[in-house]
Design goal:
By secondary structure, this protein is of the alpha/beta class. The protein is 56% helix and 10% strand. Bound molecules: adenosine-5'-triphosphate and magnesium ion.
Protein backbone atom coordinates (compact mmCIF):
# COMPACT_ATOMS: atom_id res chain seq x y z
CA UNK A 1 0.00 0.00 0.00
CA UNK A 2 1.35 3.45 -0.91
CA UNK A 3 2.22 5.94 1.79
CA UNK A 4 -0.67 8.20 0.73
CA UNK A 5 -3.13 5.30 0.91
CA UNK A 6 -1.99 4.39 4.42
CA UNK A 7 -2.39 8.00 5.53
CA UNK A 8 -5.85 8.16 3.99
CA UNK A 9 -6.91 4.95 5.80
CA UNK A 10 -5.65 6.38 9.08
CA UNK A 11 -7.40 9.73 8.58
CA UNK A 12 -10.62 7.99 7.63
CA UNK A 13 -10.54 5.74 10.71
CA UNK A 14 -9.74 8.71 12.91
CA UNK A 15 -12.59 10.78 11.47
CA UNK A 16 -15.13 7.95 11.72
CA UNK A 17 -14.13 7.44 15.36
CA UNK A 18 -14.39 11.14 16.05
CA UNK A 19 -17.93 11.15 14.67
CA UNK A 20 -18.59 8.00 16.72
CA UNK A 21 -19.50 6.04 13.60
CA UNK A 22 -17.94 3.00 15.24
CA UNK A 23 -19.75 0.37 13.23
CA UNK A 24 -18.60 1.97 9.99
CA UNK A 25 -15.11 2.33 11.36
CA UNK A 26 -14.79 -1.36 12.18
CA UNK A 27 -16.59 -2.72 9.12
CA UNK A 28 -16.06 -0.18 6.36
CA UNK A 29 -13.98 -2.35 4.05
CA UNK A 30 -16.29 -5.36 4.43
CA UNK A 31 -19.37 -3.20 3.90
CA UNK A 32 -17.96 -1.64 0.76
CA UNK A 33 -17.42 -5.12 -0.64
CA UNK A 34 -20.74 -6.59 0.56
CA UNK A 35 -22.96 -3.87 -0.75
CA UNK A 36 -21.71 -3.96 -4.37
CA UNK A 37 -21.04 -0.27 -4.36
CA UNK A 38 -19.83 -0.07 -7.92
CA UNK A 39 -22.15 1.82 -10.23
CA UNK A 40 -23.80 3.74 -7.40
CA UNK A 41 -23.61 7.50 -7.07
CA UNK A 42 -21.65 9.02 -4.24
CA UNK A 43 -24.88 10.07 -2.51
CA UNK A 44 -26.29 6.54 -2.82
CA UNK A 45 -23.11 5.09 -1.36
CA UNK A 46 -23.12 7.57 1.51
CA UNK A 47 -26.76 6.87 2.21
CA UNK A 48 -26.20 3.09 2.28
CA UNK A 49 -23.36 3.48 4.74
CA UNK A 50 -25.35 5.77 7.00
CA UNK A 51 -28.29 3.36 6.96
CA UNK A 52 -25.90 0.58 8.02
CA UNK A 53 -24.76 2.63 11.00
CA UNK A 54 -28.33 3.56 11.95
CA UNK A 55 -29.51 -0.08 11.78
CA UNK A 56 -26.55 -1.16 13.87
CA UNK A 57 -27.31 1.50 16.49
CA UNK A 58 -31.01 0.63 16.61
CA UNK A 59 -30.22 -3.05 17.12
CA UNK A 60 -27.68 -2.23 19.80
CA UNK A 61 -30.23 -0.03 21.59
CA UNK A 62 -32.80 -2.85 21.49
CA UNK A 63 -30.25 -5.31 22.88
CA UNK A 64 -29.46 -2.85 25.67
CA UNK A 65 -33.14 -2.26 26.53
CA UNK A 66 -33.76 -6.03 26.59
CA UNK A 67 -30.79 -6.52 28.89
CA UNK A 68 -31.92 -3.79 31.28
CA UNK A 69 -35.46 -5.22 31.33
CA UNK A 70 -34.22 -8.38 33.09
CA UNK A 71 -36.72 -10.73 31.50
CA UNK A 72 -36.32 -14.22 32.99
CA UNK A 73 -36.62 -15.69 29.47
CA UNK A 74 -37.10 -14.22 26.02
CA UNK A 75 -40.69 -14.91 24.93
CA UNK A 76 -42.37 -13.50 21.87
CA UNK A 77 -45.88 -13.53 20.48
CA UNK A 78 -44.65 -15.55 17.47
CA UNK A 79 -44.04 -18.55 19.71
CA UNK A 80 -47.43 -18.28 21.45
CA UNK A 81 -49.74 -21.01 20.20
CA UNK A 82 -53.22 -19.44 20.06
CA UNK A 83 -54.77 -22.67 18.87
CA UNK A 84 -53.95 -24.14 22.28
CA UNK A 85 -56.02 -21.46 24.05
CA UNK A 86 -59.08 -21.53 21.83
CA UNK A 87 -61.17 -19.38 24.18
CA UNK A 88 -58.58 -16.64 24.47
CA UNK A 89 -59.57 -13.44 22.67
CA UNK A 90 -56.80 -13.55 20.06
CA UNK A 91 -57.73 -10.21 18.52
CA UNK A 92 -57.66 -8.46 21.89
CA UNK A 93 -54.23 -9.96 22.63
CA UNK A 94 -52.79 -9.09 19.23
CA UNK A 95 -54.13 -5.55 19.39
CA UNK A 96 -52.07 -5.01 22.56
CA UNK A 97 -48.97 -5.47 20.40
CA UNK A 98 -49.85 -2.20 18.67
CA UNK A 99 -48.53 -0.84 22.00
CA UNK A 100 -51.03 2.01 22.23
CA UNK A 101 -51.49 0.95 25.86
CA UNK A 102 -47.87 2.04 26.44
CA UNK A 103 -48.25 5.45 24.82
CA UNK A 104 -51.61 5.90 26.61
CA UNK A 105 -49.99 4.80 29.91
CA UNK A 106 -52.64 2.16 30.45
CA UNK A 107 -52.23 -1.07 32.37
CA UNK A 108 -52.68 -4.63 31.17
CA UNK A 109 -53.89 -7.28 33.59
CA UNK A 110 -53.50 -10.94 32.61
CA UNK A 111 -55.59 -13.27 34.72
CA UNK A 112 -55.77 -17.03 34.66
CA UNK A 113 -54.75 -20.26 36.35
CA UNK A 114 -51.25 -21.71 36.39
CA UNK A 115 -49.45 -22.53 33.16
CA UNK A 116 -51.82 -20.84 30.71
CA UNK A 117 -49.26 -18.38 29.35
CA UNK A 118 -49.73 -15.23 31.46
CA UNK A 119 -46.00 -14.71 32.02
CA UNK A 120 -45.29 -15.62 28.39
CA UNK A 121 -47.65 -12.91 27.13
CA UNK A 122 -46.47 -10.37 29.71
CA UNK A 123 -42.85 -10.88 28.66
CA UNK A 124 -43.77 -10.85 24.96
CA UNK A 125 -45.45 -7.45 25.45
CA UNK A 126 -42.45 -6.15 27.37
CA UNK A 127 -40.08 -7.44 24.68
CA UNK A 128 -42.18 -5.84 21.96
CA UNK A 129 -42.08 -2.53 23.87
CA UNK A 130 -38.26 -2.77 24.01
CA UNK A 131 -38.12 -3.48 20.28
CA UNK A 132 -40.18 -0.38 19.59
CA UNK A 133 -38.23 2.20 21.50
CA UNK A 134 -39.76 1.86 24.97
CA UNK A 135 -38.04 0.69 28.13
CA UNK A 136 -39.36 -2.22 30.21
CA UNK A 137 -38.54 -3.77 33.53
CA UNK A 138 -39.62 -7.22 34.70
CA UNK A 139 -40.02 -8.18 38.34
CA UNK A 140 -41.85 -10.89 40.19
CA UNK A 141 -44.36 -9.53 42.69
CA UNK A 142 -42.42 -11.21 45.47
CA UNK A 143 -39.11 -9.60 44.48
CA UNK A 144 -40.82 -6.24 44.08
CA UNK A 145 -42.22 -6.39 47.61
CA UNK A 146 -38.88 -7.55 49.06
CA UNK A 147 -37.13 -4.61 47.40
CA UNK A 148 -39.75 -2.10 48.54
CA UNK A 149 -39.64 -3.44 52.11
CA UNK A 150 -35.86 -3.27 52.20
CA UNK A 151 -35.92 0.27 50.77
CA UNK A 152 -38.51 1.38 53.34
CA UNK A 153 -36.42 -0.07 56.19
CA UNK A 154 -33.39 1.91 55.11
CA UNK A 155 -35.19 5.18 54.29
CA UNK A 156 -34.74 4.75 50.55
CA UNK A 157 -38.37 4.17 49.60
CA UNK A 158 -38.81 7.41 47.65
CA UNK A 159 -35.76 6.73 45.55
CA UNK A 160 -36.76 3.11 44.98
CA UNK A 161 -40.24 4.16 43.89
CA UNK A 162 -38.66 6.56 41.42
CA UNK A 163 -36.58 3.77 39.88
CA UNK A 164 -39.72 1.64 39.48
CA UNK A 165 -41.37 4.64 37.79
CA UNK A 166 -38.64 5.06 35.19
CA UNK A 167 -39.41 2.29 32.67
CA UNK A 168 -42.30 2.87 30.27
CA UNK A 169 -43.53 -0.65 31.07
CA UNK A 170 -43.25 -2.30 34.48
CA UNK A 171 -44.09 -6.01 34.38
CA UNK A 172 -45.18 -7.35 37.78
CA UNK A 173 -45.49 -11.11 37.62
CA UNK A 174 -47.51 -13.32 39.94
CA UNK A 175 -49.74 -11.21 42.13
CA UNK A 176 -51.81 -13.49 44.27
CA UNK A 177 -49.53 -16.32 45.31
CA UNK A 178 -48.91 -14.67 48.68
CA UNK A 179 -51.36 -12.59 50.75
CA UNK A 180 -50.27 -9.11 51.87
CA UNK A 181 -50.13 -7.55 55.32
CA UNK A 182 -50.86 -3.85 55.94
CA UNK A 183 -47.29 -2.78 55.39
CA UNK A 184 -47.00 -4.63 52.05
CA UNK A 185 -50.36 -3.33 50.86
CA UNK A 186 -49.30 0.20 51.73
CA UNK A 187 -46.05 -0.21 49.78
CA UNK A 188 -47.95 -1.55 46.78
CA UNK A 189 -50.38 1.35 47.03
CA UNK A 190 -47.49 3.80 46.92
CA UNK A 191 -46.02 2.11 43.87
CA UNK A 192 -49.31 1.96 41.98
CA UNK A 193 -50.02 5.60 42.88
CA UNK A 194 -46.55 6.66 41.76
CA UNK A 195 -47.02 5.06 38.33
CA UNK A 196 -50.68 6.04 37.96
CA UNK A 197 -51.15 7.88 34.64
CA UNK A 198 -47.36 8.05 34.27
CA UNK A 199 -46.44 4.59 32.98
CA UNK A 200 -47.94 1.20 32.17
CA UNK A 201 -48.02 -1.77 34.47
CA UNK A 202 -48.46 -5.26 33.08
CA UNK A 203 -49.67 -7.43 35.91
CA UNK A 204 -50.21 -11.18 35.94
CA UNK A 205 -52.32 -12.94 38.53
CA UNK A 206 -53.71 -16.38 39.12
CA UNK A 207 -56.60 -14.87 41.08
CA UNK A 208 -59.81 -13.47 39.63
CA UNK A 209 -60.85 -9.92 40.53
CA UNK A 210 -63.41 -11.38 42.94
CA UNK A 211 -60.64 -13.22 44.75
CA UNK A 212 -58.38 -10.15 44.86
CA UNK A 213 -60.33 -8.86 47.87
CA UNK A 214 -58.85 -11.67 49.97
CA UNK A 215 -55.29 -10.73 49.04
CA UNK A 216 -55.43 -7.38 50.77
CA UNK A 217 -55.67 -6.84 54.53
CA UNK A 218 -58.55 -4.35 54.37
CA UNK A 219 -61.15 -3.20 51.90
CA UNK A 220 -60.10 0.45 51.91
CA UNK A 221 -56.61 -0.14 50.65
CA UNK A 222 -57.80 -2.85 48.25
CA UNK A 223 -60.24 -0.37 46.70
CA UNK A 224 -57.60 2.36 46.50
CA UNK A 225 -55.11 0.08 44.73
CA UNK A 226 -57.65 -1.49 42.38
CA UNK A 227 -59.13 1.89 41.54
CA UNK A 228 -55.82 3.21 40.28
CA UNK A 229 -54.74 -0.06 38.69
CA UNK A 230 -57.96 -0.67 36.80
CA UNK A 231 -58.95 2.91 35.91
CA UNK A 232 -57.04 2.84 32.62
CA UNK A 233 -56.56 -0.83 31.94
CA UNK A 234 -57.21 -3.76 29.68
CA UNK A 235 -57.89 -7.17 31.13
CA UNK A 236 -57.06 -10.42 29.34
CA UNK A 237 -58.62 -13.50 30.90
CA UNK A 238 -57.18 -16.89 30.02
CA UNK A 239 -59.35 -19.71 31.20
CA UNK A 240 -57.87 -22.68 29.34
CA UNK A 241 -55.70 -25.52 30.53
CA UNK A 242 -52.05 -25.48 31.51
CA UNK A 243 -49.63 -25.56 28.59
CA UNK A 244 -46.97 -26.94 30.93
CA UNK A 245 -49.10 -29.95 31.84
CA UNK A 246 -50.21 -30.43 28.26
CA UNK A 247 -46.58 -30.61 27.13
CA UNK A 248 -45.78 -33.09 29.87
CA UNK A 249 -48.76 -35.16 28.91
CA UNK A 250 -47.65 -35.06 25.31
CA UNK A 251 -44.23 -36.34 26.29
CA UNK A 252 -45.91 -39.12 28.29
CA UNK A 253 -44.43 -37.76 31.52
CA UNK A 254 -47.60 -36.82 33.29
CA UNK A 255 -49.33 -40.19 32.96
CA UNK A 256 -46.27 -42.18 33.96
CA UNK A 257 -45.89 -39.98 37.06
CA UNK A 258 -49.52 -40.47 37.99
CA UNK A 259 -49.19 -44.21 37.64
CA UNK A 260 -46.22 -44.48 39.98
CA UNK A 261 -47.27 -42.97 43.34
CA UNK A 262 -43.89 -43.69 44.93
CA UNK A 263 -42.15 -41.21 42.71
CA UNK A 264 -41.33 -38.02 44.50
CA UNK A 265 -41.44 -35.71 41.53
CA UNK A 266 -43.93 -32.89 42.06
CA UNK A 267 -45.73 -31.69 39.00
CA UNK A 268 -45.68 -27.90 39.08
N1 LIG B 1 -50.25 -20.93 24.26
C1 LIG B 1 -48.93 -21.15 24.43
N2 LIG B 1 -48.11 -21.32 23.36
C2 LIG B 1 -46.80 -21.57 23.54
N3 LIG B 1 -46.20 -21.68 24.75
C3 LIG B 1 -46.97 -21.51 25.84
C4 LIG B 1 -48.36 -21.23 25.74
N4 LIG B 1 -48.85 -21.12 26.99
C5 LIG B 1 -47.83 -21.30 27.80
N5 LIG B 1 -46.69 -21.56 27.14
C6 LIG B 1 -45.38 -21.89 27.70
O1 LIG B 1 -45.65 -22.71 28.84
C7 LIG B 1 -44.83 -22.34 29.94
C8 LIG B 1 -45.71 -21.86 31.08
O2 LIG B 1 -46.36 -20.64 30.69
P1 LIG B 1 -46.35 -19.35 31.63
O3 LIG B 1 -45.16 -19.38 32.52
O4 LIG B 1 -46.53 -18.16 30.78
O5 LIG B 1 -47.66 -19.65 32.46
P2 LIG B 1 -48.33 -18.78 33.60
O6 LIG B 1 -49.75 -18.58 33.21
O7 LIG B 1 -47.52 -17.58 33.87
O8 LIG B 1 -48.30 -19.78 34.84
P3 LIG B 1 -48.05 -19.50 36.39
O9 LIG B 1 -49.33 -18.91 36.94
O10 LIG B 1 -47.78 -20.84 36.98
O11 LIG B 1 -46.89 -18.58 36.52
C9 LIG B 1 -43.87 -21.27 29.41
O12 LIG B 1 -42.70 -21.90 28.99
C10 LIG B 1 -44.62 -20.69 28.22
O13 LIG B 1 -43.73 -20.18 27.26
MG1 LIG C 1 -46.34 -17.01 35.43
Amino acid sequence: MSQNRVLLEERLSHNLRKLELLHLESRLDALLEEKGFSGKSLKEQLNLLLEEEITFRQERAIRMRLKLARFPALKTIDTFDFSFQAELDKEAVLSLFGLSFVSERENVILIGPSGVGKTHLAIALGVSACQNGYTSYFTSFQMLMENLRRAAESNRLRRKLLTYCKPHVLVIDELGYLPMDHHDANLLFQLVSARYEKGSIILTSNKTYLEWGNLFPDEGIAAAILDRLLHYSKTIKISGQSYRLAMKRKMGLFDSMKQSPNRRTVIP
